[in-house]
C-alpha cells in the first residue's frame, strides 16, 4: 500500500503579470512600492458610472505569450464578470474571461531526466488582478488597491503532469518562455508569476480523474515541488484508509511542511459568471496577431538547439548562457563583433557572469559586449595572453574604457621584440649553468624550465613561442641525437 499504487495527476494554473506601465482597464500606474492607494481612480476603485477601457499593450503582450505557447488566437472573445465578495475586490467582481477566452489549445514541451514530454495548455485568458489586504499585528486590516486592475494572463494547464518534478519543469519552461518573449518578468517572489497547483490521485491505470485539491499561491520553485509531494502523500494516506479526498483549496506552510485547508473549493457556477456589459467583445485582427508573431524572436528551446548544433557550444555553456534573456542578448552582441562563439561562450561564462546580477527581465553586466569583443580580439591577435586578459578585464569592471588603452596603461602587451627576448634568454642561461649542462647532456625536458624562467622574469609577458624557439637556438644541439 502507499503512494506506489496511485498515479498522481497535476494541472497548474499560472497567473502572470503583463509588463505594461498601466492597468488593464484604466490608466493608473502598476508601479509597486508606492504608498497604499496611490495608484487608483474611479474605474479601478469600482465607483459607479466609471467605464473600463482595454489597455492595448496588455492585449498585445497576452497575444504574444499565447502564440509562444502554441495556442490558437480567437478573432473575437468576451470579457466576463466573475462575482465574489472579498475586501480587496471593490467592484464585487473581477473582470476575466470565461466561456470565450482569447486563446485556447496550446502546448509546452518539458524535459525531466532527459525525457521530453508535451504538456497541453487548455487556455490562456486575460484578467485583472485584485488588490491586497494588509493585516496588522492586532485585529486591524487594511486594503491597498494599488494592484487592483493590474493586467494578468492566466495560463490554464491540462491535467497532464504526473509528478512534482514534471510540475516544476513545466513552471520553469513556462516562466522562461514568458520572460524571453517579454510578456512577464518571471518574478515569483514578488508575485508577478504565481502558481496554483491542482493535485489528485487515481488508482494506477484508471481512466477517470480523482477528486482534486487546489494548492494556492506557492511563491517559490522550491516550495512547488515540496508542496505537491506533501499533498500527494496526504491524499494517498486518506485513500489507503478507505477515506475520500475533499475537493478544497489548501495552502502550503513551508514552516511545518504541511498543507492545510483554506476553504472549500468553489465551483464555476458559484461565481455567477456573466458577460461584462461595459466592454465590447475583444476583437483581435489577423494583422495584429501577425505583428506579435514577428515580435516573438527565437524561443529559448530553439536557441539551445542551435547553439549546440550550429555553434558547437558545450551543453553546460548552453544551459548557463540561456538562463536569462539578457545573457542571450549579451552573448549575441559579443558574437556580432567577434564571431567565434566557443571563445565568447567561455569568456562570458567564466569572467562576465561572475559579476552579473539580474532582477526580473533586467540583467546588469560588469562590462559591455563591445569591451568583451575587443578584449577577445587582443588575445586573438596574440597581443595578450589569458592571464593578461583577466587583469585587463578586472580593470574594465564598471568602466567605459577600451581594453587596448588599459593594456597600454598597465603595460600588459606580450613581449615579442626578438632582440630584447634574446638578451633575457641569454641571461637566464648564464644564471643556470648546471641546468644548461644537463640539458646539453640529454635532459631535454629542461627546456620547460628555461621557458618558465623567461615567463616569470618577464612578468608573464614574454611571447612563449618565441622564447621557446630562442632557447632551442641558444642551447644548441643535444647529445645523443
Ligand atoms: P476551475 O475552473 O474550477 O479552476 P478547471 O476545470 O478550469 O477548474 O481546472 C483548473 C485546473 O485544474 C486545470 O489546470 C486542470 O488541469 C486542473 N485539474 C482539473 N481536474 C483535475 C484533477 N482531477 N486532478 C488534477 N488537476 C485537475
Ligand atoms: Mg481555477
Ligand atoms: Zn485606475
Describe the structure.
This protein has 481 residues and is α+β, with helices and mostly antiparallel strands. The chain has three domains: 3-288, no CATH class; 298-410, no CATH class; 418-475, Arc Repressor Mutant, subunit A, CATH 1.10.10.410. It is 38% helix and 22% strand. The chain has 16 helices and 18 strands. It has helices at residues 42-45, 56-68, 164-180, 221-240, 286-295, 300-309, 315-321, 325-337, 341-352, 369-380, 386-396, 403-410, 418-431, 433-440, 446-457, 464-475; strands at 6-17, 72-73, 76-77, 79-83, 93-97, 103-112, 115-128, 132-135, 141-144, 151-157, 193-203, 213-218, 248-253, 258-264, 274-275, 282-283, 357-359, 362-364. The strands form five sheets. A nine-stranded mixed sheet has the order 2-6-7-10-1-11-12-13-14. Strands 5-4-15 form a three-stranded antiparallel sheet, with no helix packed on it. A two-stranded antiparallel sheet has the order 3-16. Helix 7 crosses helix 9 and helix 13 packs across helix 16 (464-475). The longest helix is centred in the middle third of the chain and has 20 residues, at 221-240. The mean pLDDT is 93. The chain binds adenosine-5'-diphosphate, magnesium ion and zinc ion. Zinc ion binds at residues 23, 26, 28, 40-41, 43-44, 149. Adenosine-5'-diphosphate binds next to strand 1, strand 10 and strand 11.
Amino acid at each position: 500500500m502507499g503512494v506506489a499504487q496511485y498515479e498522481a495527476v497535476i494541472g497548474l494554473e499560472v497567473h502572470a503579470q503583463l509588463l505594461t506601465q498601466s492597468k488593464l482597464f484604466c490608466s493608473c500606474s502598476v508601479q509597486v512600492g508606492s504608498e497604499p492607494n496611490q495608484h487608483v481612480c474611479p474605474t479601478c476603485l469600482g465607483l459607479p458610472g466609471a467605464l473600463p477601457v482595454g489597455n492595448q499593450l496588455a492585449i498585445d503582450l497576452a497575444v504574444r505569450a499565447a502564440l509562444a505557447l502554441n495556442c490558437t488566437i480567437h478573432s473575437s472573445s468576451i470579457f466576463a464578470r466573475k462575482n465574489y465578495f472579498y475586501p480587496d475586490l471593490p467592484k464585487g467582481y473581477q473582470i476575466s474571461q470565461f466561456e470565450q477566452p482569447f486563446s485556447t489549445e496550446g502546448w509546452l514541451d518539458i524535459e525531466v531526466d532527459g525525457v521530453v514530454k508535451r504538456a497541453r495548455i487548455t487556455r490562456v485568458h486575460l484578467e485583472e488582478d485584485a488588490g491586497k489586504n494588509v493585516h496588522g499585528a492586532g485585529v486591524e486590516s487594511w486594503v491597498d488597491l494599488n494592484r487592483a486592475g493590474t493586467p494578468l494572463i492566466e495560463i490554464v494547464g491540462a491535467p497532464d503532469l504526473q509528478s512534482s518534478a514534471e510540475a516544476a519543469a513545466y513552471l520553469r519552461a513556462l516562466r522562461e518562455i514568458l520572460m524571453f518573449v517579454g510578456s512577464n518578468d518571471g518574478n515569483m517572489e514578488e508575485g508577478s508569476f504565481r502558481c496554483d497547483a491542482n493535485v489528485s490521485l487515481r488508482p494506477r491505470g484508471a481512466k477517470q480523474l480523482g477528486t482534486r485539491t487546489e494548492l494556492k499561491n506557492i511563491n517559490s520553485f522550491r516550495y512547488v515541488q515540496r508542496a505537491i509531494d506533501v499533498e500527494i502523500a496526504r491524499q494517498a494516506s486518506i485513500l489507503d484508509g478507505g477515506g475520500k479526498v475533499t475537493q478544497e483549496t489548501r495552502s502550503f506552510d513551508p514552516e511545518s511542511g504541511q498543507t492545510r485547508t483554506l476553504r472549500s473549493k468553489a465551483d464555476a457556477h458559484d461565481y455567477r459568471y456573466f458577460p461584462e456589459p461595459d466592454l465590447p467583445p475583444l476583437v483581435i485582427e489577423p494583422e495584429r496577431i501577425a505583428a506579435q508573431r514577428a515580435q516573438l524572436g527565437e524561443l529559448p528551446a530553439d536557441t539551445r538547439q542551435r547553439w549546440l548544433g550550429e555553434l558547437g557550444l558545450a551543453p553546460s555553456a548552453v544551459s548557463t548562457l540561456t538562463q536569462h534573456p539578457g545573457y542571450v542578448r549579451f552573448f549575441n552582441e559579443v558574437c556580432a563583433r567577434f564571431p567565434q562563439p566557443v571563445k565568447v561562450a567561455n569568456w562570458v561564462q567564466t569572467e562576465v557572469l561572475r559579476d552579473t546580477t539580474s532582477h526580473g527581465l533586467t540583467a546588469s553586466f560588469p562590462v559591455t559586449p563591445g569591451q568583451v569583443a575587443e578584449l577577445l580580439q587582443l588575445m586573438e591577435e596574440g597581443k595578450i595572453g589569458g592571464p593578461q586578459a583577466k587583469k585587463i578585464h578586472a580593470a574594465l569592471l564598471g568602466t567605459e574604457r577600451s581594453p587596448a588603452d588599459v593594456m597600454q596603461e598597465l603595460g600588459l602587451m606580450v613581449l615579442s621584440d626578438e632582440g630584447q627576448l634574446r638578451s633575457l634568454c641569454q641571461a637566464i642561461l648564464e644564471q643556470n649553468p648546471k641546468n644548461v649542462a644537463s640539458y646539453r647532456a640529454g635532459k631535454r625536458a629542461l627546456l620547460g624550465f628555461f621557458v618558465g624562467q623567461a615567463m616569470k622574469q618577464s612578468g608573464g609577458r614574454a611571447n612563449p613561442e618565441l622564447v621557446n624557439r630562442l632557447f632551442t637556438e641558444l642551447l644548441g644541439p643535444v647529445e645523443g641525437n
